[in-house]
Every structure is written in structure tokens, then in C-alpha cells.
Automatic annotation (TrEMBL):
Domain of life the protein comes from: Bacteria
Database matches in SUPFAM superfamilies: P-loop containing nucleoside triphosphate hydrolases
Name the record gives this protein: Competence protein ComFA
Entry keyword annotation includes Coiled coil: no
Pfam families in UniProt: Helicase_C, ResIII
Organism, scientific name: Fictibacillus barbaricus
Keywords attached to this entry: ATP-binding, DNA-binding, Nucleotide-binding
Length: 493
């Protein structure tokens, strides 16, 4: 879209070209406008509450706001919203104001119908959220704050373990303060329950809370649990394809990618699985977390496998034992032979096949992790030839991913073959875990620990089986087993 700039009431202001009937004004892409002032705030303006709900704590493209442009611009003129550049030029190149990207190879140009430019530059890094270009402003709300209800009682009658209680108390102490804290808890320690009291305290004090996680599956698991224990709180989940993204919620459960849409929205930011890919490797996702919090904020990190850097730099509280009081299942390392060549010949390794048949007849569910999407269908096809139970597969881009994971939870699928996408956030009782090709370099120490952590998570089934099938022990495998044994030792086992 092109904008024009002009003098109004002795100050420089701007407007979309289509709203100004003056052919003498030069229309340019938004990022080429001269620096202009924000409009004075009109206290008595009868603002549109729907627009407030859409924009409060966010920074959105015009295409994401389902209201007439005239209404949007009227609020700009009254000092209730702000036009921000989508991307801007600096001395090093381009900078994306939404995701923070400054890498030259992640910017491109196209011939743009909207601004009539032959080379309209845009950010490729966050293109999945809608195109941010040199002619698309990002709109943010600077009008009155939303007032939240104080009826946010926690409805939960469970009891915390000793370790959980210590971590919960530390969280509650930090509500209303600035700073950060790491809760370093073993897989299955009950991190979600640890959050309950701190979230309740924050909500009752009128604070806005976000739980951000790198994985959609974790969002889908956490949302119904939190809605159940906070039945009177407005809660919304944000992920690709979510139907709740337009709900103005005091408690938000979001993927880290969806945080690109927020700006200075949250008093408390809880980053779950802080060590997980892609968050731990993508600086723009870390930028999204920083942009989404208010200047005075508190950040809480949750992880079973935090990085060495985080363990050194962030104050922490440690939960060494699972909530049910039993040790973590220690993986069994089993020689699987040259599994790649066997797959090429249309066969499964004998040791894996023996385990598979016993597993299928046990009446228990199994999650089989494979190192690559490229072999997932082949492995699934071969597994189906040898068992009579329902077998399916799932991966990150699977269009039926949500439905398949839900079917697995409901015991409609007995064996689910998956990539590392399900290494976190999925809790299923009576489950055993196998890692096929555990020696592959895609399986890091933390990934193997997390995958092993899927087993034995319920009190009534605390000793699930975990097997690493390999063709030569990797350093990551050895470290993962050592890590699990050490955590059990620290817990007194």
C-alpha cells in the first residue's frame, strides 16, 4: 500500500493514498515516508472496542484486521493506534520489525501491485505469518488498556510433591517482580501443575500471562488442561490453523512462532521446553519472546535438558523426581545391525522385529521414533506387515498430525511411528518407546532424554520400557543414559 504525507495542524502526518483526494501529494511505499509524529491522543473519542480487542498487545498487518480501512485510520488520527514500518533500511541492510531478521539472504523483492514498485523488498523469515514488505505497515494499539476480570480462581484439588511445591513457591514469589527463573525438572516431574498457583496469583493481580512452546503438540495438550483448572478465565491457544487467535485472552498458550504477532503484551512469559528446536537455534524466535513482553516483566523457563549456558546464567530450582515418586526408565541399548541397508532391502533388523512382535501382543501402546521423514513411510509399511494392531505415522508437516496424535491418545492407534516432533509434550499411559536408528546424528543427548521421558509418566504405569536400537553406540546415546541415571541418583534411587 502507498501512503502520502502532508502537514495537518502544524504537524507532519500520513494517510493511505486511497483515503486522500489530492493528486498533488506524492504517494510512496510506507518505508519511504519521512519521519512523522504520532497523532495527539483524544481522551473523549468513542473508540471501537472490537478494534481494541483485535490489536491490544499485538502488531498486525492491515490484512489481519477485519475492519474497514477508514475505521482503522480514524483511530490513528485520534491517537489510538500507531503505524509501524514493516521492514526498514539500516546501515547494514534491511531489518524486519516483526521478527527481527537482519540476514540479507532472508530478504527478497518482487514487483508489487500495491505500491507499484518493481522491487518491493519483503522478509522471507516470517513469510508464513503473512508478507511484511516495505509497503506494509504493522499496526499496534496505543489507546486505553483492556481491564481484566478478577474472577480467576484455580479449580484443582491435586497435591504437589515436595520438589514441585518448592518450585511452585519460587514462582509465586516472583509474580509482580522482574527477572527470570529456570525450573529444571526431569521429564514427567509435573511441570504444568507447578505453574498453577503462580498463574492464579498473576491473573488475580490483573497480569497477562503467556505460556510459549516451540511445538504445536504441546499447545494442544496444555490448552484443555489449563481451561479445566481455570474455568472462569479467558484462555486462547495460538498455533498455525488455530481458530482462537482473535480471542482477547488473559492467559495465552502459544507456539513461539505465533509470538511474532505480539508486542509488549505480557507481564509474565513462561517458555516451556526452552531447549527445544527450533527455539534454541533461532534468534528471531528469541527476539519474538523479548518483543512480546512488557518492559517490566518476569520470564520463567521450563526444561528437563537445559543448556550449559542457561544452567550457568539463570537462577534455577531443580526437581529431580517424577511427581509419582518412581525413577525414570533407563534406556536399554540394543544392537540393531546395519538398519539402513536392511531398509533398502525391505527388511527390519531382527532384534527390532523380535521386540515389535512382543510389543504388539502385549496390549500396550508404542511410540517408535525414526531419524528422518524420508524413511517413515517405509518403516511404517514394514511394521504393518508383521503386526495386526493399528499402526500409523506422523511428522511435522503431516496434514492429519493433530487428528493422529489425538487418536493415539484415545488408544485408537496402538503403534505410532514418528520423527522427533513428538519427543515432547505428549503424555500417554501404558506406553513403551523405541528409537529406531538411535545412533543417527539427528538424535542429540537432549532429544534422546526427552524421547525416553515419554515412558513411565503415570503412577499406575511408572516403569515403561525404553530401547535404543543402534548400529554402533553414539556419544549422544551414552550421554543420554548417563544423564538419566544421574537424575535418578540425585532423586535418591
Amino acid at each position: 500500500m502507498r501512503f502520502v504525507s502532508f502537514i495537518l495542524n502544524n504537524r507532519l502526518t500520513v494517510a493511505p493514498e486511497c483515503l486522500v483526494d489530492d493528486p498533488d501529494l506524492k504517494a510512496v511505499p510506507f518505508c519511504e515516508l519521512p519521519e512523522f509524529e504520532e497523532s495527539p491522543f483524544e481522551q473523549n473519542f468513542d473508540y471501537d472496542e472490537k478494534l481494541q480487542q483485535i490489536l491490544f498487545g499485538k502488531m498486525l498487518l492491515l490484512d489481519e484486521i477485519n475492519l474497514p480501512l477508514e475505521i482503522i485510520h480514524n483511530h490513528f488520527e485520534r491517537g489510538y493506534l500507531k503505524y509501524n514500518p514493516g521492514i526498514r533500511k539500516n546501515k547494514y541492510g534491511w531489518h524486519c520489525n516483526r521478527c527481527g531478521n537482519e540476514k540479507d539472504h532472508l530478504f527478497a523483492s518482487f514487483s508489487c501491485f500495491r505500491c507499484k514498485s518493481e522491487r518491493c523488498f519483503y522478509c522471507r523469515n516470517c513469510i508464513m505469518m503473512g508478507r511484511v514488505s516495505m509497503c506494509t505497515p504493522l499496526i499496534s494499539w496505543i489507546g486505553p488498556d483492556v481491564k481484566w476480570d478478577n474472577v480467576n480462581d484455580l479449580v484443582w484439588e491435586g497435591e504437589l510433591s515436595k520438589g514441585q511445591q518448592v518450585a511452585s513457591d519460587r514462582f509465586v514469589e516472583q509474580v509482580g517482580k522482574s527477572g527470570e527463573l529456570l525450573i529444571w525438572a526431569v521429564c514427567g516431574a509435573g511441570k504444568t501443575e507447578v505453574l498453577f498457583k503462580g498463574i492464579e496469583t498473576a491473573l488475580k493481580n490483573g497480569y497477562r500471562v503467556c505460556i510459549a512452546t516451540p511445538r504445536t503438540d504441546v499447545v494442544l495438550e496444555l490448552t484443555p488442561r489449563l481451561k479445566a483448572v481455570f474455568p472462569n478465565t479467558c484462555i486462547a491457544s495460538y498455533y498455525g490453523g488455530s481458530e482462537e487467535r482473535d480471542i482477547l485472552a488473559q492467559l495465552v498458550i502459544s507456539t513461539t512462532h505465533q509470538l511474532f504477532r505480539f508486542k509488549q503484551a505480557f507481564n509474565i512469559m513462561i517458555v516451556d521446553e526452552v531447549d527445544a528446536f527450533p527455539y534454541s537455534y533461532d534468534q528471531t524466535l528469541q527476539h519474538a519472546v523479548l518483543a512480546a513482553v512488557k518492559p517490566h516483566h518476569f520470564k520463567l523457563y521450563l526444561s528437563a535438558t537445559p543448556s550449559s549456558k542457561m544452567k550457568k546464567e539463570v537462577p534455577s530450582v531443580k526437581i529431580q523426581m517424577r511427581f509419582h515418586g518412581f525413577p525414570l526408565p533407563v534406556p536399554k541399548i540394543v544392537w540393531g545391525g546395519e538398519w539402513k541397508k536392511r531398509l533398502e532391502r525391505g527388511k527390519l533388523p531382527p532384534a527390532f522385529l523380535k521386540w515389535l512382535k512382543l510389543q504388539a501382543s502385549s496390549g500396550r501402546r508404542a511410540m517408535i521414533f525414526v531419524p528422518s521423514v524420508s524413511i517413515i513411510e517405509k518403516v511404517t509399511e514394514l511394521v504393518r506387515k508383521h503386526v495386526e494392531v493399528k499402526v500409523d505415522f506422523v511428522y511435522a508437516e503431516d496434514p492429519l498430525r493433530k487428528e493422529k496424535v489425538e487418536a493415539f491418545r484415545k488408544n485408537e492407534i496402538s503403534i505410532l511411528i514418528t520423527t522427533t516432533i513428538l519427543e515432547r509434550g505428549v503424555t500417554v499411559p501404558f506406553l513403551d518407546v523405541a528409537i529406531f536408528g538411535a545412533d543417527h546424528n539427528v538424535f542429540s543427548e537432549s532429544a534422546l532424554v526427552q524421547m525416553a521421558g515419554r515412558a513411565g509418566r503415570k503412577k499406575e504405569d511408572h516403569s515403561g520400557q525404553v530401547i535404543f536400537f543402534h548400529y554402533g553406540k553414539s556419544l549422544s546415546m551414552i550421554k543420554a543414559v548417563k544423564h538419566i541415571k544421574e537424575m535418578n541418583k540425585e532423586a535418591g534411587f
